[in-house]
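User: quick one, fold this
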Amino acid sequence: MPVPYSDDFEIPVLATGESPLHGYRGSSEEEPISEMPAGLTIAISREAGARGATIATRAGEKLGWDVYSQDMLEYGAHDGSLRQDVVDKLTPAALAWVEEQMARLATEQHLSQHPNILELARLVLALGSHGNVILLGRGAGFILPTRSTLHVRLVAPLADRIAYMSQWLRLTEEEAADQVRKRDHRRHDFIATHFHLKPNDVHLYDLILNTSMFGEDHSADLVATAAKAKMSAIVGRD
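Assistant:
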């Protein structure tokens, strides 16, 4: 059950319409300004040990939005029945939007045509078609359109990330350092191979947060506030 949030985090919606996802949908009195998506999606990228999962969860609690972890996205992309269940719940307009975005990814961003990546992209777009959801990892921010996505990058000093990994996984400092290095490398290689981008390029993101500076709860606050700011900017432009 999503945790209620204060009015400080109330976020306007992009459009009206039903959604299979749970969470805040905005006031019914607000005027729709776009057919799809119906709301904003937050896509979170992170360095290993930057506490991305915890911050994503806390931001979801503050907003009352569902959060999909990297493991959930990977499982959904590989499990045909689960993925189909998500797609089957889409409205005809949402389904058409997903297919339009798949075509955009193929022609404009040259997304990898590996079957697993295509299914991942279709799942991410299906989840993002109604918005009001947080997606962690798997290049979600490079799949979704920039207009309706807040793309966040969570970083932290290497020493802090190693210390956190050591505590979280109960590893020696040397083992934790190896884990951080390997995870960072795998994530960098995944984005470079399938999206032809460098995840450490600062210009790819709307917001970059040093989680060691702000801590988990304040970082989640900043993500939620940035989501509100981006939605307000979109509404203002339209």
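User: anything notable?
Assistant: The domain at 35-237 is CATH 3.40.50.300 (Rossmann fold).
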